[in-house]
């Protein structure tokens, strides 16, 4: 599909391009679903192993901002990073934490109107780092907040009339954070936005 969209076999018309776009989108959605199912099954069966190192969150977050900026640009959404000055490294699996954050950012963007604002905050609280992904999107109702981390639970999106996503991303995120010994939760007010937060242990000093 990508080769045809690039015009490798020859020129295509508008209707053909739309069909190919839909096919490519469906294929990517199916691949995401399969990957999420595999991730969740590995975690639940205890087969997943964390590669724990001391991770400087500032570096991770700045990298995520570079990744997300072109994705957010078409809808004129912005992403800001706020990290507490002098925040120590966290003891975590860098790749898995990036996966969690990308998942939370993708969800935030999906449920935030054009021109909306997203933000990642990281602060120290005792021996823990609290990381939050904040948006000024549509928020969610109380009953949805109680079920949002359950596998296959999806919200209707009045912005697009589509649910999107696999319905597994947040369940995978919860399992990854709990595997690290942390916790993850959501605070939201319907119509005003959401804050997804999780905790990670700070790396031992010295």
Automatic annotation (TrEMBL):
InterPro entries hit by this protein: HATPase_C_sf, HATPase_dom, His_kinase_dom, HisK_dim/P_dom, HisK_dim/P_sf, Sig_transdc_His_kin-like_C
GO cellular component term of the entry, any: plasma membrane
Domain Histidine kinase: from-to ranges: 1-204
Stored Gene3D superfamilies: 1.10.287.130, Histidine kinase-like ATPase, C-terminal domain (3.30.565.10)
Catalytic activity, EC: 2.7.13.3
Keywords attached to this entry: ATP-binding, Cell membrane, Kinase, Membrane, Nucleotide-binding, Phosphoprotein, Transferase, Two-component regulatory system
Subcellular location: Cell membrane
Catalytically driven reaction(s): ATP + protein L-histidine = ADP + protein N-phospho-L-histidine
Cleavable signal peptide: none
Record has Hydrolase as a keyword: no
Subcellular location, principal: membrane
GO molecular function, one term: histidine phosphotransfer kinase activity
CDD domains, A to Z: HATPase_EvgS-ArcB-TorS-like (cd16922), HisKA (cd00082)
Protein name from the UniProt record: histidine kinase
Source species of the chain: marine sediment metagenome
């Amino acid at each position: 599909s990508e080769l045809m969209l690039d015009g490798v076999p020859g020129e295509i018309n508008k209707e053909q391009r739309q069909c190919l776009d839909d096919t490519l989108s469906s294929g990517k959605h199916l691949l995401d679903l399969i990957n999420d199912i595999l991730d969740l099954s590995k975690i639940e069966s205890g087969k997943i192993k964390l590669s724990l190192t001391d991770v400087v969150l500032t570096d991770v977050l700045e990298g995520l901002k570079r990744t997300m900026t072109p994705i957010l640009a078409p809808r004129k959404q912005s992403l800001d990073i706020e990290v507490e000055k002098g925040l120590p490294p966290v003891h975590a699996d860098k790749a898995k934490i990036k996966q969690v954050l990308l998942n939370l950012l993708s969800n935030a963007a999906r449920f935030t109107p054009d021109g909306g604002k997203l933000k990642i905050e990281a602060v120290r609280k005792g021996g823990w780092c609290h990381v939050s992904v904040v948006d000024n999107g549509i928020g969610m109702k109380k009953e949805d907040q109680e079920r949002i981390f359950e596998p296959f639970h999806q919200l209707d999106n009045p912005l697009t009339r589509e649910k999107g996503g696999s319905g597994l991303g947040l369940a995978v995120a919860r399992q990854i954070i709990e595997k690290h010994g942390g916790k993850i939760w959501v605070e939201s007010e319907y119509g005003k936005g959401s804050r997804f937060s999780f905790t990670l242990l700070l790396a031992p000093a010295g």
